Amino acid sequence: MELFNQHTQIMVPDHTDNEDALARTTVLCIAAHQDDTEIMAYHGIGQCYGKNDEWFTSVIATNGAGSPRTGLYEKYTNEQMCALRAKEQNNAAIVGDYAAQIQLGYTSVQVKDPNQYDLTNDLEMIIEACRPQIVLTHNLADRHETHVCTALRTIHALQQVTESARPQTVYAMEVWRGLDWLDDSDKLVFDTSMHPNIANAVVGVFDSQISGGKRYDLAVMGRRRANATFLASHGVDQVEEAAYGMDITELMTSDMDPCTFIAQKIDTFKNDVISKIKNHW
Predict the structure, then answer these.
(1) Which residues are 74's β-sheet partners?
(2) Which has the closest alpha carbon to 85: 197, 214, 193?
(3) Residue 229, Cβ density class (10 Å: 0-12 exposed, 13-18 middle, ≥19 buried)
(4) What pLDDT was estimated at residue 128?
(5) How far apart are CA 156 and CA 114, in angstroms?
(6) Is residue 172's pLDDT more than 90?
């Protein structure tokens, strides 16, 4: 598999041949930055962990150059930070027993450029090689522009792959904006309570972020517990921890505009809020 970006790194924790490692993938996560996979896709990691018939593969689009840095890492150059972030991501893949970890090494500027097709073409080749059952990526209402653009490039790639390589489902997950606002009819709830030691470990290896002042290790677990508890106001918790997502499979199989798609979700939320107020004013 000859990818367009020459800075691409592919790491296979169990040293299986790259082609075979990708071909066994059942769940593929396409994320913008190092640690995004572990934040938004743990249900996929946990589902596949320790199994021989289900395998999780992570793809990271960017090189990590824009990461904040303080303390021990305050004087790191962009090159040093990129190398460290890549190492941390590979460590997470080892701890999480991934099928493979691919780091494409694009800049955020490249990811956000709609006229730069290399990332889309790389993702198309990766999806063809993996032929996963499920693809996970960022949601279109995410607050981080690079996350949204990674999702858009993923959608483009999914539209381009051969029909036989398309996943059964494509789910969009939460990082820089929770999905609590989604109407219950649109909200997918994923159990993330399996293997809690692994859940903590795959986030905890990103010391450059945690020591740098971003306590993702605490925030992620807090969000998952909050999701599980605040899901239903009149029922007991069904799981201990949960992640929210939305089904965006139709964006792969139709010509629906992503703006129209997410606007419909937002309008459903808006109408629900307004109707509750009007009914009781």
Answers:
(1) none
(2) 214
(3) middle
(4) 98
(5) 11
(6) yes
**How far, in Å, CA of 33 to CA of 54, rounded?**
24
What's the residue count for the chain? 281
Amino acid at 52: N
Structural tokens at position 278: 């009007």
First and final CA of the chain: distance in angstroms?
61
For 232, phi then psi, to 5°, come to -130, 125
Burial 151-164 (b: 16+ CB within 10 A, else e): bbbbbbbbebbeee
- Maximum distance among all alpha carbons in the chain? 65
Closest CA to 166 of 154, 177, 178: 154
Summarize pLDDT for 68-118 with one digit per residue, the tens: 767 778 788 888 989 999 999 999 999 999 999 999 999 999 999 999 899
Q: How far is CA 186 from CA 1, 84, 225, 226, 265, in A?
A: 37, 38, 20, 19, 8
**pLDDT tens-digit map of 126-139:** 999 999 999 999 99
The upper half-sphere exposure of residue 225, i.e. CA atoms within 13 Å in the direction of its Cβ, equals 8
pLDDT-derived band at 5, boundaries 50, 70, 90: confident
pLDDT at 237 over 90: no
**The two structure tokens encoding residue 174:** 């939460």
Q: What is the mean pLDDT of residues 225-235?
A: 87
Edge-first strand listing for the sheet containing 27-31: 9-11, 100-106, 56-62, 27-31, 134-138, 169-173, 242-247, 188-191
Cβ(92)–Cβ(35) below 8 Å:
yes
pLDDT in tens, 182-214: 999 999 999 999 999 999 999 999 998 888 778
Which structure tokens are listed for 195?
């293997």
Q: How far apart are CA 4 and CA 266, in angstroms?
A: 36
DSSP bridge pairs for 169: 134
Specify the residue for token string 């395998």. Answer: 55
